[in-house]
């Protein structure tokens, strides 16, 4: 279930991008879970076509996924297929970070690619034809020649090959009811295990909607030369151009594909890149620049090989490949073999964790975990001070119940003070407490403490959502207050008041971006 | 275990001193001595001996005057007066161990030791507990003898403070002279002995440390629009 302020933040994002009506439908889905059109109409007391339009907007912008299930009919009626709508909370929050996605593309490719991506982010889903039309309408140059079009197509292929753009998912996958005959055969234990690992219906539906890997990034484009489609051998058929018929087929197919295939930005690929970046930043700060450079080179070399966002370990690489990659970067050129070896050992790749002979892989999960720890610890430090920081770190590191006196002895905090701090942290849900009463002994009651990471992390995420919501509301308020002077023509925008609002805007925006890094750290990485 | 022969040797001596004790004094004295280095709390004495309050108080005074027993502060509860026979040193449970002076944490001493340790770790780049203890001993800055155990405890606290890091030797590079797998310490982050505190995303904005955040709602009395912390923060 999504946290309280997570919902509020998501609703405020949707409301500011698409208006209150869409936000109302979205909030209903966030609070009540998956619903059918009929349910949505009933809960919102809106007209059916209003709700339909809202859903269309949300689907167009990849915030809602539809899927159909078979429902048992009433007595004597045949079972019927019902369309359900599920909201994609993660994708709504991604709207906060579009500028980060654009920055990635602008750094890795060029201005054209950035503009293409911008179109997709603005419109949610587009066919290649629509993308080209849009480019034509905004291009200031008069020459809309074939050469310009071909250049655009080429940029598009670059984005697809880099996995930053993908085909849209299946609009409405059918979810077959679970096979009931199969169920009783399994042992109770197996069933329990299956229940634990089983995905929810919504998760299965989202997974089922994703096109097969080979189709997801398959692209057919006529640019004179054949491009793309590394994984689809069918496309290379056209390469030989021996047969006229085949040539004809290809042209029509290209035409159809340009008009009919819908594309969208692949959020997963962007989040994966941002996760890599967060890992490198953390390693740079916690260890040193050398370790950061080496990790960056390793992730850069294998960015295409990863298929999911939350990869545990980086793709194994040999020492030769690592060295080669390290030397590509400016700061890596000065590193000796000995220095690279040292950095790898700092990163925790020693002989024991090697996957195979002479291949190195970094535990990314643990880097993310220490980044999460640091964020929570910094909150404790600032709110409760150094002694509490020490106590929290002790409990977070031991990861089991520890008795009050034991905590006081290990952390050098006076017993009375320790109890006070522990109690405060417990009150704010940072700690879990257990009481143990022993009979007959002198001291009859012991208090045991522990950090329950899952719940602390959830609370932190919720508080961050609250803070992000506050930042964006304050921003709206500040801009509204200075509405008049912001309306002035550019040359008149001078003076103290304007200077102030400019600074306020910069500070609020940059803080929101930084806080968004934190949101990703706890939600997406 | 080591105390038993001691006890046996001392008993006849103390017995020879005792003719001047009254009956109640004798009962109390034997009880206190039987508790060895743990001592006993006045209330427990009264319960175990069934003597009246004023008798106990009077006898304790006289035993103290005769230099047979002494009063110690219990670190667990400073109001509970504990009495020990003079020949015993109070146990660790009573005093709180080496870090306590008269029932209070010796913060000044701890602070000095912490500074000293982190300075040594900084100087030595990578060091083991033994190495740091040895280095401090040789430098002769402190006149009190510090055990390796004490230094280890200080180092553990420095790790919790995130001033230093605990790492295991890989025998590569900077660890070359340290056997594989040995626990070592080095300075954490890029900072010197004081370390630079990293600023998290939350703590760099007012909401991250706001004491009223739980009462703050978009349309409430406390709201981001009317928030004074925000106003102060955005005061350019």
UniProtKB/TrEMBL annotation, chain A:
<comment type="subunit">
    <text>Component of the RNA polymerase III (Pol III) complex consisting of 17 subunits.</text>
</comment>
<comment type="similarity">
    <text>Belongs to the eukaryotic RPC3/POLR3C RNA polymerase subunit family.</text>
</comment>
<dbReference type="InterPro" id="IPR008806">
    <property type="entry name" value="RNA_pol_III_Rpc82_C"/>
</dbReference>
<keyword id="KW-0804">Transcription</keyword>
<dbReference type="GO" id="GO:0003697">
    <property type="term" value="F:single-stranded DNA binding"/>
</dbReference>
<protein>
    <recommendedName>
        <fullName>DNA-directed RNA polymerase III subunit RPC3</fullName>
    </recommendedName>
</protein>
<feature type="domain" description="RNA polymerase III Rpc82 C -terminal">
    <location>
        <begin position="154"/>
        <end position="370"/>
    </location>
</feature>
<comment type="function">
    <text>DNA-dependent RNA polymerase catalyzes the transcription of DNA into RNA using the four ribonucleoside triphosphates as substrates. Specific core component of RNA polymerase III which synthesizes small RNAs, such as 5S rRNA and tRNAs.</text>
</comment>
<dbReference type="Pfam" id="PF22536">
    <property type="entry name" value="WHD_POLR3C"/>
</dbReference>
<dbReference type="InterPro" id="IPR055207">
    <property type="entry name" value="POLR3C_WHD"/>
</dbReference>
<dbReference type="GO" id="GO:0005666">
    <property type="term" value="C:RNA polymerase III complex"/>
</dbReference>
<keyword id="KW-0240">DNA-directed RNA polymerase</keyword>
<dbReference type="InterPro" id="IPR036388">
    <property type="entry name" value="WH-like_DNA-bd_sf"/>
</dbReference>
<keyword id="KW-0539">Nucleus</keyword>
<dbReference type="InterPro" id="IPR039748">
    <property type="entry name" value="RPC3"/>
</dbReference>
<dbReference type="Pfam" id="PF05645">
    <property type="entry name" value="RNA_pol_Rpc82"/>
</dbReference>
<dbReference type="GO" id="GO:0006351">
    <property type="term" value="P:DNA-templated transcription"/>
</dbReference>
<feature type="domain" description="RNA polymerase III subunit RPC82-related helix-turn-helix">
    <location>
        <begin position="8"/>
        <end position="68"/>
    </location>
</feature>
<dbReference type="InterPro" id="IPR013197">
    <property type="entry name" value="RNA_pol_III_RPC82-rel_HTH"/>
</dbReference>
<feature type="domain" description="DNA-directed RNA polymerase III subunit RPC3 winged-helix">
    <location>
        <begin position="376"/>
        <end position="440"/>
    </location>
</feature>
<dbReference type="Pfam" id="PF08221">
    <property type="entry name" value="HTH_9"/>
</dbReference>
From TrEMBL, chain B:
<dbReference type="GO" id="GO:0005666">
    <property type="term" value="C:RNA polymerase III complex"/>
</dbReference>
<protein>
    <recommendedName>
        <fullName>DNA-directed RNA polymerase III subunit RPC6</fullName>
    </recommendedName>
</protein>
<dbReference type="InterPro" id="IPR016049">
    <property type="entry name" value="RNA_pol_Rpc34-like"/>
</dbReference>
<dbReference type="InterPro" id="IPR036390">
    <property type="entry name" value="WH_DNA-bd_sf"/>
</dbReference>
<keyword id="KW-0240">DNA-directed RNA polymerase</keyword>
<comment type="similarity">
    <text>Belongs to the eukaryotic RPC34/RPC39 RNA polymerase subunit family.</text>
</comment>
<dbReference type="Pfam" id="PF05158">
    <property type="entry name" value="RNA_pol_Rpc34"/>
</dbReference>
<dbReference type="InterPro" id="IPR007832">
    <property type="entry name" value="RNA_pol_Rpc34"/>
</dbReference>
<dbReference type="InterPro" id="IPR036388">
    <property type="entry name" value="WH-like_DNA-bd_sf"/>
</dbReference>
<feature type="region of interest" description="Disordered">
    <location>
        <begin position="1"/>
        <end position="21"/>
    </location>
</feature>
<comment type="function">
    <text>DNA-dependent RNA polymerase catalyzes the transcription of DNA into RNA using the four ribonucleoside triphosphates as substrates. Specific peripheric component of RNA polymerase III which synthesizes small RNAs, such as 5S rRNA and tRNAs.</text>
</comment>
<keyword id="KW-0539">Nucleus</keyword>
<dbReference type="GO" id="GO:0006383">
    <property type="term" value="P:transcription by RNA polymerase III"/>
</dbReference>
<dbReference type="GO" id="GO:0005654">
    <property type="term" value="C:nucleoplasm"/>
</dbReference>
<keyword id="KW-0804">Transcription</keyword>
<dbReference type="GO" id="GO:0005737">
    <property type="term" value="C:cytoplasm"/>
</dbReference>
């Amino acid at each position: 279930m999504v946290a309280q302020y997570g919902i509020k933040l998501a609703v405020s994002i949707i409301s500011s991008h698409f208006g209150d009506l869409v936000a109302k439908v979205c909030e209903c889905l966030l609070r009540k879970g998956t619903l059918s059109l009929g349910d949505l109409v009933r809960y919102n007391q809106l007209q059916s076509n209003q709700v339909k339009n809202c859903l269309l907007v949300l689907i167009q912008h990849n915030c809602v996924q539809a899927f159909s299930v078979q429902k048992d009919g009433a007595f004597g009626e045949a079972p019927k297929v019902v369309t359900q709508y599920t909201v994609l909370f993660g994708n709504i929050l991604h709207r906060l970070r579009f500028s980060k996605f654009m920055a990635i593309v602008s750094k890795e490719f060029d201005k054209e690619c950035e503009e293409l991506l911008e179109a997709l982010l603005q419109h949610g889903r587009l066919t290649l034809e629509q993308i080209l039309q849009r480019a034509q309408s905004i291009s200031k140059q008069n020459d809309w020649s074939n050469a310009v079009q071909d250049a655009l197509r080429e940029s598009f292929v670059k984005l697809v090959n880099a996995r930053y753009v993908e085909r849209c998912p299946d609009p409405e996958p059918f979810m077959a009811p679970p096979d009931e005959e199969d169920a009783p055969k399994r042992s109770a234990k197996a069933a329990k295990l299956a229940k634990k690992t089983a995905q929810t219906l919504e998760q299965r539906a989202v997974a089922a909607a994703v096109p097969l890997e080979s189709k997801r990034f398959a692209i057919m484009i006529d640019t004179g030369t054949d491009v793309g489609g590394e994984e689809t051998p069918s496309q290379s058929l056209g390469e030989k151009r021996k047969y006229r018929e085949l040539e004809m087929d290809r042209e029509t197919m290209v035409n159809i594909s340009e008009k009919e295939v819908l594309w969208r930005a692949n959020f997963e690929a962007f989040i994966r890149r941002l996760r890599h970046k967060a890992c490198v930043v953390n390693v740079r700060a916690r260890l040193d620049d050398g370790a950061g450079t080496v990790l960056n080179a390793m992730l850069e070399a294998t960015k295409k090989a990863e298929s999911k966002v939350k990869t545990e370990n980086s793709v194994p690489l040999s020492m030769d490949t690592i060295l080669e990659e390290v030397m590509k970067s400016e700061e890596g050129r000065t590193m000796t073999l000995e220095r690279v070896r040292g950095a790898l050992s700092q990163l925790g790749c020693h002989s024991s964790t090697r996957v195979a002979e002479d291949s190195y892989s970094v535990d990314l999960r643990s880097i993310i975990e220490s980044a999460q720890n640091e964020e929570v610890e910094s909150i404790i430090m600032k709110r409760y001070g150094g002694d509490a920081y020490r106590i929290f770190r002790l409990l977070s590191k031991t990861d089991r119940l520890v008795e009050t006196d034991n905590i006081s002895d290990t952390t050098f905090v006076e017993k009375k003070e320790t109890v006070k701090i522990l109690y405060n942290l417990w009150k704010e849900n940072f700690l879990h407490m257990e009481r143990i009463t022993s009979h007959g002994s002198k001291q009859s009651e012991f208090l045991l403490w522990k950090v329950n990471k899952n719940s602390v992390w959830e609370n932190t995420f919720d508080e961050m959502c609250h803070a992000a919501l506050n930042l964006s509301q304050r921003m709206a308020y500040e801009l509204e207050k200075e509405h008049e002077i912001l309306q002035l023509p550019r040359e008149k925008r001078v003076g103290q008041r304007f200077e102030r609002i400019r600074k306020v805007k910069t500070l609020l925006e940059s803080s929101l971006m930084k806080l968004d890094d934190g949101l990703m750290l706890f939600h997406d990485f | 275990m080591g105390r038993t022969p001691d006890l046996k040797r001392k008993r006849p001596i103390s017995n020879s001193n005792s003719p001047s004790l009254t009956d109640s004094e004798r009962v109390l004295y034997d009880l206190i001595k039987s508790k060895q280095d743990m001592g006993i709390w006045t209330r427990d004495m009264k319960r175990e001996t069934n003597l009246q309050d004023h008798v106990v108080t009077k006898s304790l005074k006289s035993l103290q005057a005769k230099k047979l027993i002494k009063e110690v502060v219990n670190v667990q509860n400073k109001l509970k007066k504990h009495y020990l026979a003079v020949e015993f040193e109070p146990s660790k449970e009573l005093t709180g161990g080496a870090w306590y002076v008269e029932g209070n944490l010796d913060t000044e001493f701890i602070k000095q030791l912490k500074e000293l340790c982190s300075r040594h770790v900084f100087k030595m780049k990578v060091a083991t507990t033994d190495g740091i203890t040895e280095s401090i001993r040789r430098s002769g800055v402190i006149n009190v003898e510090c055990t390796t155990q004490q230094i280890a405890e200080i180092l553990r606290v420095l790790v919790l403070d995130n001033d230093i890091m605990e790492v295991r030797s890989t025998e590569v590079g900077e660890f070359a002279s340290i056997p594989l797998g040995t626990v070592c310490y080095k300075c954490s982050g890029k900072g010197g002995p004081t370390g630079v505190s990293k600023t998290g995303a939350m703590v760099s904005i007012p909401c991250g440390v706001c004491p009223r955040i739980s009462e703050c709602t978009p349309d409430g009395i406390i709201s981001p629009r009317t928030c004074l912390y925000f106003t102060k923060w955005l005061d350019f």
